Amino acid sequence: MNNRNRLTIYILIGLALGIVVGYIANINLADPKGFADTMSLVTTLFLRLIKMIIAPLVFATLVVGIAKMGDAKEVGRIGVKALGWFIIASVISLSLGLILVNLFRPGDAMAALGNLPPVGADSGIVTSGLTLKEFITHLVPSSIVDGMAKNEILQIVVFSLFFGTAAAAVGARATPMIDAIDGVAHVMLKLTGYVMNFAPIAVFAAVAGIIAKSGLGVLSTYGIFMGEFYLGIALLWVILILIGMVFLGPRVLRLIVELREPTLLAFSTASSEAAFPKTLEGLERFGVKNRLAAFVLPIGYSFNLDGSMMYCTFATVFIAQAYGIELPLSTQLMMMLVLMLTSKGMAGVPRASLVVIAATLGQFNIPEAGLLLLLGIDHFLDMARSATNVIGNGIATAVVAKWENDLEEPVKDVAVSPLR
User: Fold this and answer.
1) Distance CA 3, CA 364 (A)
2) Is residue 90 within 8 Å of residue 304, measured between CB atoms?
3) What is the pTM of this model?
4) What angle do the packed helices 276-286 and 378-403 form, to 10 degrees?
5) Contact 395, 251 (CB under 8 A)
6) CA 152, 262, 164: angle at the middle one, nearest 5?
7) 289-153-171 Cα angle (round to 5)
């Protein structure tokens, strides 16, 4: 059994044990919230270790990749193709959420139960920084050190694009620096392997903590809503895989196998960021050159959050239904366009989907208090969203590589090399 399969099995074991221990803690401990808080420390530590890696990893791999391309036109061409795919995937995700929430109408069942939060209740979700002006100015870092300190992936990508292009233009004089940055990339990938050894413990703590705090009862209370949302996620997976198959053929199934570990990690920790380094490795094993994967994948983390976008339309209309607000088709389509914009660049914001939804509710006169209906189960929903984001970005990157005629044969368990 190789190390990747062993880690996957350990993560699954951690997931199962977390459910059991969390349930026992919930029904037996006098203060299950205290237990949950203790478990959250373990999860937080792991996620901070991951975040510690992301900024230097994205910068190093992207700069080396662009410098190796050596052609600004090639960078621009790949960027346009990636953004084109991201827009199409966004429309599909948002539309699917809109169709399913109108078909299932889960908000009607919540309205029938009563006990809705008062319209004026405060959800506690801060919605600042979602205007078009804020989004555009947020793209360019005022200081790359500040952008890296805050793990602002989009800002790191923008700086790396300029830096890598400039390094390529300088030519031979920049070669020693590029070699040094390439060494940083190798070191960060090695460090990723060390950090991932803690993943099963982090998964156990994350699941045990949330089950201890919320109990399995919250799953039964919102069972219908969660079931319908997870069905929607499954349909989105099928659609993305089928579209991927159009371009990649049956080989797309091999890609899903390569991404099983980062997908499981994202699902267990409810964090797409936690899966970023392993997703990069999986794409290279699939045959995507690292210089291309290191360029497309970070952009996808800001522009291609498929699971999160589907949830935005699904949850927004659900809240409107719960409060008896009927939204005409024209309003729902306008809402979808608004979400297309406000959902971009939100990867670095904690509980980003809730922030986007809160901003959208206010624009369409839907009670923001409705978010309180979702806070108790948001972690379980975020697990599905995060896993879907990994799959969506993995397929997107592989398809762009195919369009560029830059997709090689799968690599069998070799060290990841940012030079390719």
Assistant:
1) 50
2) yes
3) 0.81
4) 30
5) no
6) 40
7) 55
How many CB atoms are closer than 10 A to CB 251?
17
Angle subtended at Cα 253 by Cα 249 and Cα 258, rounded to the nearest 5 degrees: 130
Nearest by Cα to 151 from 62, 63, 54, 46: 54
Dist. CA 403–CA 233, nearest whole Å: 26
Q: What angle do CA 342, 85, 146 make, to 5 degrees?
A: 50
Number of neighbouring beta carbons within 10 Å of residue 315: 28
In the block, which residue shows the tokens 């506690």?
124
Phi/psi for 417 (5° steps) reads -120, 110
Rounded alpha-carbon distances, angstroms, from residue 294 to 52, 79, 88:
17, 12, 21
pLDDT band per the 50, 70, 90 thresholds, residue 113: low
pLDDT at res. 419: 45
Cα–Cα distance, 216 to 19 (Å, whole number): 9
Name residue, tokens 């976008």: 309
Tokens of 155: 């800002």
By three-state DSSP, how is residue 407 classified? strand
Segment 248-298, tens digit of pLDDT: 999 999 999 999 999 999 998 888 888 888 999 999 999 998 888 888 888
> Considering only CA atoms, which of 25, 97, 27, 104 is closest in space to residue 321?
104
Angle among Cα 321, 88, 335 to the nearest 5 degrees reads 30
